[in-house]
Amino acid sequence: MCGIFAYINYKKQKKVSEVMALLIGGLKRLEYRGYDSAGVCVDQGRGVSIIKRGGNVSKLEAVVKENEANIDMDAILNNHSGIAHTRWATHGQPCDTNAHPISSGEGDEFVVVHNGIVTNFNTLKTFFEKRGEVFVSETDTEVICKLLKYLHDAQTPRDRKEPIQFHYLVMEAMSELEGAFALVVKSIHYPGEVVCCKRGSPMIVGIKGNNFEETKSINDSEPKELFVASDASAIVEHTRSVMYLEDEDVLYCDKEGVCRTFNAKSDKRLEALGDGVRLLHQMNLELHQIMKGDYDHFMQKEIFEQPESIKNTMKGRVDFEKRTVSLGGFVNTAKDIKRARRMLFIACGTSYYSAQSCRSILEELVEVPVVVELASDFLDRNPPIFRDDVCCFVSQSGETADTYQALEYCRSKNALTVGFTNVVGSHIARKTDCGCFINAGCEIGVASTKAYTSQVACFLMLGLKLSEDSRSKLERRNQIFDGLLAMPDVMRETLKLDDRMKELAHSLKNEKSILVIGRGYNYAVCLEGALKIKELTYIHSEGILAGELKHGPLALIDEDMAVIMIASKDDLYAKVKSGLQQILARKGRPIVFLTEEDDEMKAASEIIMLPKTVDCLQPLVNVIPLQMLSYHIAVARGLNVDCPRNLAKSVTTG
Questions:
Q1: N or C: which end of the chain has fewer CB within 10 A?
Q2: Is residue 271 predicted with pLDDT exceeding 90?
Q3: Collapsing DSSP states into helix, strand and coil, what is residue 80?
Q4: Other CB atoms closer than 10 Å to residue 469's CB: what's the count?
Q5: Which phi and psi angles does 254 have, rounded to 5°?
Q6: What are phi and psi of 48, to 5 degrees?
Q7: Residue 285 has pLDDT above 80, yes or no
C-alpha cells in the first residue's frame, strides 16, 4: 500500500545531503507501493526538517532542491536518522497536507511515517478534539502522533523519576491502536533515537556495519547503518543482511547505536536469541532484478522475463527424466491434502485468476473438489470451514490484507493452511502450515505478469506431486511434464508476437470497451486479460465465459464493440466456434487467438496464431499476448505503465 523508508547511521559520518539522497533513492525503489504523495524528514540542529509534496517522488525531489537553501545540506553528522514515505491514499486526498511524514503539531515533537490503516482513528480523533486538539490533515496517521504526544505529556515527573523510555511509549500507544500498521517514529524528546514497529503490515530492516560479518549482531554500539523499509527492493543495493520484524515487534535503536527488539504484547525484550534481536538473514535478491535494464518499463521487462521466471519456478523441483516433482514445503502434508474434504484457493485479483485457471486440472489430477474464493467475499460471508479442508492462500507479496485475514479465519477453524507467495518472510509465508514459494523474482510493475504464470506453474507442480501414485493418470501426467519442459521455449516463441500486439494496440487505443471471450481453461485467461486492460489502459474491459453469451452479454455485441476471442484447439473448441458465429451474426468484429489454422475462422476481423501446447498449459501461453497488448495500448495512450492511477502493488489494507 504505502512505502516506508528510513536511514539510520551511528558513528558513520554522513552529510545531510547524502542522507537526503539515500532517502529519495529508497522512495524511488518503493514507488510502486504508492505514488499519490511523498515526503522526508531529516535532523536539523535540535529539531527536524520536514519536506513533503503531493504527487510522485520526482515532484518531492524537485521541492527538496528548491529548499536546499533552508537546510544545512553540508552539515556532517556522526549519528543521524532520516525517515521517508511514499503514499497510497486511504484517508484524505493526495495533497501536501496529507503527505507523510505527519507530525504531532507545532514544534514537531513526534514525527511518524505509517503504512496501513488505524481502524479506530475516528474514536481517537473525537477524544483529542474534545480536549481541544486541532487536526491539520485528514489522515488516520495524525491520531498516532497526537496519541504519542498525549501519552508522553501524561508521564509527569511525579509519576516517574525519569521520563518514559521511547520504546515503552510506542508500545503503550500500540495498545490503544486497532488495525494494521507499520510505523517509524522520531521525537525531539528522544534525540538520536528511533523506534520501528509493526502489526499486520510488512517491515524489513537491513544492517550494514564494519564488523557485522564477524558479530552478526546489531546489539552493540559499533558503527553501523540501518535501512528500514516496507520491501527488500529498497534495501538490496545497500546490504543483503536483513531482519524481518514480526507482528507486535518493536525495534528500539538508542542514541548509542544499540538496537534491541521488544514484543508489544508482553512488554518484554526478545530473549530467545540471547542478544534480543530477530534472526538475521541473507537476501537472495540481486540488484539487477530491480533495474529496468534496456527496457522502457518494469512491466515490459517482467513480461519478457517469463521464460526464465517459469524455469526458475520449476528449477530443483521438477525432474523431467524421472517424471517426479519434489516440493519441500509439502513433505509432511501431501498425504493430508490428498485425504482432504476439499481444497479452497483464496486470493484477490490476479492471484485469484491464476487459481481459477488451474481449478479444472487440479480436480482432474487430485480428485478432490476445488473451490476458488475471492478473499474479500470470503470474509464477508464467513463460510463454514472444516478441519479436513485444505485452505490455500495465494498472494504475490504475501501481505495482501484480505487474503491474510482469510488465513487467520481458517486457522481459527483448525484447517490445514497452504501458502503460495513470492516473498520470503512475508505474513502468509510465516503463518501457513506449509506452502511453496513461486520464485518468480522481484516484480515491480504494479500490474502483475510473471507472478501469474509462476503461480500457475506452482499449482500444476502441486497437482503432479499429489497424483504421483495414480497409475490411471500416468498418460496425462506425462503430457504435462512434456509441456512444462518445453514451456520456456514456447513462451519465447510467443513473445515474438510483440510487434503484432503493438500494431493491434494502435487500432484499439481509442476503444471505449473491450470484451475478452473464452471458455474452459481459457476463461481465467479472459478474466486476467480484461483485468490487465482495465488496470493499464483505463478502458472498460470484461472477461466473458463464451457459454454465457446468450444469457445477456450478447446484447453488447455490435459493429462498434471490440471483441477478443481465445479459441485454443481443445475439447471445447467447437463450442467456442459456435460463440464466434453468434458474434458474427450480430455484426461483431472479433479478433481471434488461434492455435491451429481453421478455414471456418477466416470470417474474423483478425486472426493471431499462437504456439500450441497441452490444453491445461495453454493459459501460460495465451495470457502473454494479452499482457503485451495491454502494455502497448497504455503506452499508445501516453499512460504511466508501471504506476497506474489509483493503484498500488501490495494491497496491505482492506
A1: C
A2: no
A3: strand
A4: 7
A5: -85, 180
A6: -135, 160
A7: no
User: Would you call 191 helix, strand, or coil by DSSP?
Assistant: coil
Read off the pTM: 0.83
16 vs 381, higher pLDDT:
381
Half-sphere exposure of 247 (CA within 13 A, CB side): 14
What is the rounded CA–CA span in Å between residue 529 and residue 625? Answer: 9
The active-site residue out of 2, 145, 410, 436 is 2
Q: How far apart are CA 177 and CA 148, in angstroms?
A: 11
Q: Where are the beta strands (DSSP E) in 479-596?
A: 513-518, 540-545, 562-567, 589-594
Instruction: Give the DSSP letter string of 596-628.
Output: S--GGGTTSSEEEE-----GGGHHHHHHHHHHH
2 is catalytic: yes
User: What cell was used for 419?
Assistant: 501458502
Mean pLDDT of all residues belonging to the chain: 89
Q: Which residues of 303-319 are buried (b: 16+ CB within 10 A; e: fewer)?
A: bbbbbbbbbbbbeebbe
CB 78 within 8 A of CB 18: no
Burial class (CB in 10 A: 0-12, 13-18, 19+), 418: buried
Measured CA to CA in angstroms, residue 548 lies from 544, 545, 601, 607 at distances of 7, 5, 20, 23
* Residue 154: how many other CB atoms lie within 10 Å: 10
Q: Judge contact between 416 and 337, C-beta under 8 A.
A: yes
Q: Quick one: cell of 446?
A: 504494479
pLDDT digits (tens, 9 = 90+) for 16-41: 889 999 999 999 988 878 778 899 99
Answer with the residue of higher pLDDT: 517 or 601. Answer: 517
SS3 345: strand
Question: What was the pLDDT predicted at 210?
Answer: 57
d(CA 38, CA 86): 4
Please enumerate in sequence order all residues whose Cβ is within 8 A of that of 469, keeping only pairs 6 or more positions apart, or say none: none
